[in-house]
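Forwarding the complex inputs:
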Amino acid sequence: MEALVATAIGALTAAGVYLILRLRSFAVVLGMTMLTYAINIFLFTSGRLVINQPPILRDHSGNITGYTDPLPQALVLTAIVISFGMTAVVVMMALGAFIEGGDDYINMPEEDRNMPPLLTVEAEEESEIAGQTKGGSA
Amino acid sequence: MNHWIIAPVLLPALFGALIILWMRHDLLLQRTFGIIGSLFLLGTAIYLNVLAAGGEVQVYRLGNWAAPFGIVLMLDRLSAMMLLLTGFLATVVQLYAFGSGWDRKGWHFHALWMFQLMGLNGAFLTGDAFNLFVFFEVLLIASYGLMIHGGGPMRLRAGVQYISYNLAGSTLFLAALGAIYASTGTLNMADLAQRVAALPPDDTGLLRVGAVLLLIVFGVKAALVPLHFWLPSTYANAPGPSSALFAVMSKVGIYAIIRFFTLVFPNDSVVEHLATNLLLPAALATLILGQLGVYGTRSLTRLAAYAAIGSIGTLTIAIARFDETGLTAGMYYLIHSTLAAGALFLVVDMIAARRGGDVWIRLRPTFPNTGLLSVLFFATAIAVVGLPPLSGFIGKLLVMQATADDEWMPWIWAIILITSLIALVAFGRAGSTLFWKSHELDPEPDNDTDEGPRPKPGPILHKLETDEHIQDVDDSASPALAFTSVGLLLAGLVALTIFAGPVTDYLARTAAQLHDIDSYIQPVLHQQEDTK
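Prediction (whole assembly, two chains):
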């Protein structure tokens, strides 16, 4: 049981880390999802793995036979909801960037770093004229 | 239990919901309720400061459940101070958002503003580690909205980076909490402090992993090198008022570091000097990188973003010592750098708006209000670089004083002084390019009518494409209000300078309270007679 869960967490994390290092936002979103799944399972195990026990104390007399820690379950529930919401946000944002920017690269495009040439009125007019003649000949 | 302690979390939630549900289409109502909400928060923060100044840590038990089981909110001097700082910055910057017209560039600006404040205040107040995670997510999800407010391909793309980075940070946070819960069985901070101190020293492997992961997560939030990569593009591409509010968001990471590594993992506990040993080199690297970035960048907004990184480096140098003088100096610089960075982002935004959205540091003809803006830029630059007479100078002096007996002292002092010089040169260069040399490009006044060849005019200012994603001076609803807002932030800096004595005394008491761990644990875990 422990080996199985540990392997699952490890495999999901490895896949997630690999994917979030990719340069396209789709892969990154997938990687995030994998990573959050891995973390959810990890949180679940932080209360120890117990099989076939309820998350409540049934016996108040003091001889407790066994129970599952309920707190990690509550934590996982919160974590699932939050990571689900966050994934939705990042998908929307990535879609927006893809539609507005034309590609889904994660890196910032060149224009973010390099100073664009200063357009003067004259240069602008020239480029407009050039564009018009081009359009006219086509 | 004083119910006002939860007001900084509940009020913005209420106002945010009201704004979204009932006043979606009415900007005037949104503004009115937005500013009322912020003022309310500011008032509450002042009251809570008075409450906390007595020195007793106040506990608010949600649902009145007994402590390690229910969630508690804790109000001590540090949280109260952070609430006040947030309240002041938020109110003032909101005025700027009205005045500059940024809040009509997209939907739900004021609702997001309120939710952002809810997350910030909650993170400062909570006394439960998992609850801290939840409030981090609240403030992050609101900040995503504020960051891409106005849209545009660059902003959205920077937003994707920002979200991805912080989502990865959040998963690490959960992993840290899982590790800590697995080794201690609790997530209440006061209870954690007790149990961590009682753990047998040879059985702390998992706990140490948790502590380091927490430090990494808070380092991501605070943008400490090498976890700062999200900050420059995000702050540079975000709308001006959002960046100015984010100045306090990166301080949440610093706050969490102070809280966890004085309370739960203090320097002589099971984690030994882990926090100091990791934080100090990171802080020095942050300072160097930030100031070099200020020097190297050719974009105004990036200049402000790197200046914010540099200021985080300076204050973390002091915080990393975790002794009382270090914390005092660090907290003083924290207040200063939040206000200064906020003012810088606003000034930069105003300049960019008046240059037709051109954020690059290059010659353009003079623009409206050049005189006033150059004065504001000059004053802000003095504050950010840390020259006298403003509080940046006192803050850096305090930081250097606090590290005077450190074994790294020569390095720390050299780096602080040299990087200040670099930043000074960078700001001087930017200012002279923006304001001084621009006059050369202005068209000459027409004295001679048509006699002889006229001197060749410089390139004529042409507006970059009219872009709804870029703030434009024509959209400015009330420039006077925007100037007032920057003026208020600068007034805050001046007040911080004039009252440096009382403020540092108070911060010294705050630091003493942080070191008195029992005063934090007692009210939560031991004085709970009336709880369920």
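Chain A touches chain B through 47 residues (CB under 8 Å).
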